[in-house]
Amino acid sequence: MNPSLFRIMLYISLIICLIGLLYRIGRWFIIKTGSEDAEYSPGKRFFSALKGSIVLIFSPKILLFFKALIFDVIFQTRILKHNFLRWITHVFIFVGFMLLLLMHALDGIITVKLFADYSSTLNPFMFLRNLFGLMVIVGVALAIFRRARAQKGFLRNTLNDKFIMFIVAVIMLSGFLLEASKITSAPVFDRMIQDYSILKEPEEIKPLKVHWAKEFDVVFSDITKQDLANKTLLDEGKVSHEDNCAVCHTRPGAAFISHPVASVLKPLAGYSNEARADIWIYWVHVIACFIGLAWLPFSKFFHLISDPINIIANEMIDPQKINPANAATRRALELDACVNCGTCNSRCSVAPVYRMLGNEEILPAKKLATINAMTRGKEFSEADLKAISEGAFICTSCYKCTEFCPTAINLQDQWLVSKKELESKGHPLPHVWMKEKNAAEWADEIKDKISPRFSGPGHLNLTDRADTFSVCIQCQTCSNVCPVAACTSDKGVDVAPQKVMNLLRMGLKDIAANTRMAWDCTTCYQCQENCPQGIPVADIMYELKNLAYEHLRKKS
Amino acid sequence: MSELKNAQQGRIDCDLAVIGAGMTGMAASVFAAKRGISTVQVGNIDGGLIFSSSLIDLMAVHPIQDKKIWENPWEAIDALVKDSPEHPYARISKEDIQKSIEEMLGFFTDAGYSYYYEKDKNLELLTAQGTIKHTYCVPYTMKPGVTALAEKAPCLIVGFQGLKEFSALQVTETAGSRWPSLRALTIPFPGSENKKDLYIAHLARALELPGARIKLAEQIKANLKDEKYIGLPAMLGINRTKIIIDHLEKEIGVPVFEIPTMPTSVPGLRLKEVFEANLPGTGVKQVFPGTVTSVTEEGGSFIIEVGDTGRSIKAKAIILASGRFLGKGLIADRVRIREAIFDLPVTQPGHRNDWHTVKFLDPSGHPVDKAGLEIDNNFRPLNASGKPAFENLYAAGSILAHQDWKRMKCGAGLAIATAYAAVNGIKKENK
Q: Which of A77, A464, B120, B233 is the most exposed place for a label (fewest CB within 10 A)?
């Protein structure tokens, strides 16, 4: 327990942490999520953010700061809105860890100032330390349990996620072990006698030892069972304890985790005392903490910085009025705010499509991770870009992910920007790229791969059944009520529902599926509702679109 | 208590259920409501009405094989009834037919869609093909066209590039010998110059905006010479027709008239909107869309099941106005024709081979078109023994046998008059 070694390690960790923080925060002003962000230089973005913050702080919106801080950052209502058990898990970890950090790790700076007669071995501190440690362990256990049980693809477990759970578990478990080892440690007792009492002679110390062996579970090699039964020694020890120790020491039973652990390990206490296990465990505990501290900017611990900032920014900034330079900065900051909690995935409206197609780029958490990878310069193959593009357009912009993200990431904005990026990289939405060819050309492309009757499982198979559209009398009612046919500025002639029906009547299903109409259809259902023959025109359009895409996808 | 039970079952109670949402069903509902009969109408409003040209034919051609056209529809009816006493018109007096049409026109006028007619005369007007149509009542939008034709006044027919269903040139070519001062003009529709295909209902909706009307008027005015009338395909709006016509006439300076087009025609869509907007106010409950799947008797009333909706109607009387093959009132398979709901006997040619004559456009028509239900003088359909199938079941409209409304030009008149007779039959029974 060399204090200067401790201090050196602490300062090194702090410096690494600070440099890392500057680096990570600095990148918020540099990262470009979209090519339009290049318009704003890092310097411009920094000063714009500074100006924006100052304006907000000195406006009535400062009240929102406190609202966000209290409800969303401290009480984490955003998680509560989604799921009670998840909220409990995170509150346990957060409250337990923060209070241990502030009241235990920093007890020399904080706790001592608040409580004049503080001693770590007094109650309620001893009890609370165990309680908070237990909270963290329960929380982490729940988190690990949830991740182990998650369905494939819905919860991403990166190295970062595993690292933080590992480090926190190590810190907590080593903490309990440390306390347990110290409880039974004779060498620690000896040191305490040396540092804090006036007792010098072994005869003076022995009664105290007996008292501590009996009441405090210390294991001494030189105290026998008879000593423990000796009433005189016990009485003297009790008095000595009152004089020398009681001010700072409550019974260890208050350490309701560490003490039972110590009891269980008592048979090995002789060996652990000799080997000074307490010192080893202390260094494990402390080094784990320092690793966590030094690595904070690069690990999931960083969310302790990025998430409160993002949550407060979300509350205070009006997304309609945000300065584009600040929007770019916010998008970059958000990439660091994601904690892979998977809430967005569990709320995603098109998650069933992921289950059908197996393309992970459909799910929001992966989409954000991909955007992150893109900003770091990762190169994507054509096949990757196709998968990413598919994920982008299957998203219906329903806003559920944005609504429920506990860290207040404006996912909707990220998707809008990334879709534009994909377009500029040559991967626009399907109803754009399918206009590169006309219906007959597309039909040629897919016709060799599929039979004319290409419905399959999961479809209503309307378009394979002649009775669906054989009653079409080409009265043109569907075309007359179709708003797309009315408003289209497309110069193509194949934008009319009745034409698609006619192609189907002629058995030209592959051409019908590739008409502009099938892809521009907004499924407003006017055609289906007005058809005098009761033909499900809109449902047919929908089925054609899905069949065509399915076959184009298979082909590639 | 039973009201509650009925409500829970989705059941509606009424005196009269009208099955059918074409002109016959609508007319029956109008008449019944006027007479204080609680009425429920069930059917598919997106059926016959939207195919209508909105002209009201009374009687114009008899005998159809001679294509003899009558100037006076009442004389035509007399001749028809003498030659074909089984025609539904034979069971209604001319006074009643006249009253039914006047009552129906009153409804249309109140709804803001008034008609023009001359009591004893059929009117003549141009069709989109340039042929001459003989009809009894025309909507006010088409009336100037009747006058223009009668006067043979100089008239500009305007068509639009991309509107396949109307060719101004075809109109003038076909009608030119009869009406020499017709001139054709084809222009792009303002705002749709890039489109290759136009649909008439879209143009009608476009004209509901003042800006589009001003542009159109400018275009027409720039091309107008000494013409006294402008003829357009029927596209002058669906809901704001009067405003559109007044505005165009003000801008151009001469009367504007509509020319009836093929289905789906805008006046047909207008009729649908007129009924949709104005029938509920008369107290008629409507179950649209609704396909009647079964009718059973229960203690002197009919219980009508409507499709898979779980709804049913309990009615003391039914008017069956379910139409012919398109309306699915009659179902034809390879062997015979049957009536869809009650399986009433359908008068039809003895053998499938006799349904049609060899020539497709045979002037005397095809026997299958005269198939349908037999009725008594109270317009109740008959069973196999020649007696009314049910005491309180009435039938009206095109489902009746012995009429060929398309060739006789008596469609709407038949619908309105037989609906009138059926409703009066109910009123009589209930007295």
A: B120
Which amino acid, one-letter code, is at B282? T
Among A335, A283, A43, A12, smallest CA distance to A174 is for A283
**pLDDT, average across residues B177-196:** 91
Subunit contact B50:A479, Cβ cutoff 8 A: no
Question: Which of B44, B195, B264 is facing A480, going by the closest CB pair?
Answer: B264
pLDDT category of residue B290 using cuts at 50, 70 and 90 = confident
Q: Which chain A residue shows the shortest CA-CA distance from B205?
A: A486
The answer, for B194 touching chain A at a CB cutoff of 8 Å, is yes
Blockwise average pLDDT, block size 10, chain A, 556 residues: 84 95 94 86 91 89 91 92 92 94 90 87 89 94 91 88 91 94 90 87 88 89 85 88 88 90 89 88 94 93 94 90 90 93 94 90 95 90 88 92 94 92 81 79 71 56 83 91 85 82 88 86 92 91 84 70
pTM over 0.80: no
Q: Report the C-alpha gap between A184 and A190 in whole angstroms.
A: 12
Report residue B347 as tokens: 């008068």
Q: What is the pLDDT of residue A377?
A: 86
Structural tokens at position A62? 């400062």
- What CA–CA distance (Å, rounded) separates A44 from B362? 85
Evaluate whether B375 touches B301 at the Cβ level (below 8 Å): no
3 state SS for chain B: CHHHHHHHCCEEEEEEEEECCCHHHHHHHHHHHHCCCCEEEECCCCCHHHHCCCCECCCCECCHHHCCECCCHHHHHHHHHHHCCCCHHHHCCHHHHHHHHHHHHHHHHHCCCCEEEECCECEEEECCCCCEEEECEEECCCHHHHHHHHHCCCEEEEEECCCCCCCHHHHHHHHCCCCCCEEEEEECCCCCCCCCCCCHHHHHHHCCCHHHHHHHHHHHHHHCCCCCEEEEECCCCCCCHHHHHHHHHHHHCCCEEEECCCCCCHHHHHHHHHHHHHCHHHCCEEECCCCEEEEEEECCEEEEEECCCCEEEEEEEEEECCCCCCCCCEEECCCCEEECCCCCCEECCCCHHHCCCCCCCCCCCCHHHHCEECECCCCCEECCCCCECCCCEEECHHHECCCCHHHHCCHHHHHHHHHHHHHHHHHHHHC
Kindly write down the DSSP assignment for every residue of A176-207, as one continuous string.
HHHHHHHHT-HHHHHHHHHHH----SHHHHHH
- Looking at every residue in chain B, the average pLDDT score rounds to 93
Contacts of B326 in chain A (CB under 8 A): 473, 532
Amino acid of residue B193: E
Please give the residue of chain B at the shortest CA–CA distance from A528: B46
Q: Which of the 8 DSSP states describes residue A396?
A: -
Tokens 């949830």, located at residue: A146
Q: What is the pLDDT of residue A323?
A: 87
* Cβ of residue B172 closer than 8 Å to a chain A Cβ: no
pLDDT given for residue B200 in this prediction: 94
pLDDT at B9 exceeding the cut of 70: no
- The pair of three-digit structure tokens given for residue B48, joined into one six-digit string: 């016959």
Q: How far apart are CA B208 and CA A542, in angstroms?
A: 31
